[in-house]
Amino acid sequence: MTLWRRRWKGAAWMDNISSLLGLALRAGRLAVGEEPVGTASRSHKAYLLLLASDAADNTIRRAHHFTQTGTNTICLTVPMTKEELGGALGRASCAMLAVTDVGFAAALAKRLASVDEQTFGSARDALTPKAQRANKRRKLSKKGKRGTERGSKSPAEQETRMDDRKNRS
Question: Which of 18, 69, 108, 156 could be bridged to 88 by S-S, CB 3.0 to 4.6 A?
Answer without folding.
Answer: 18
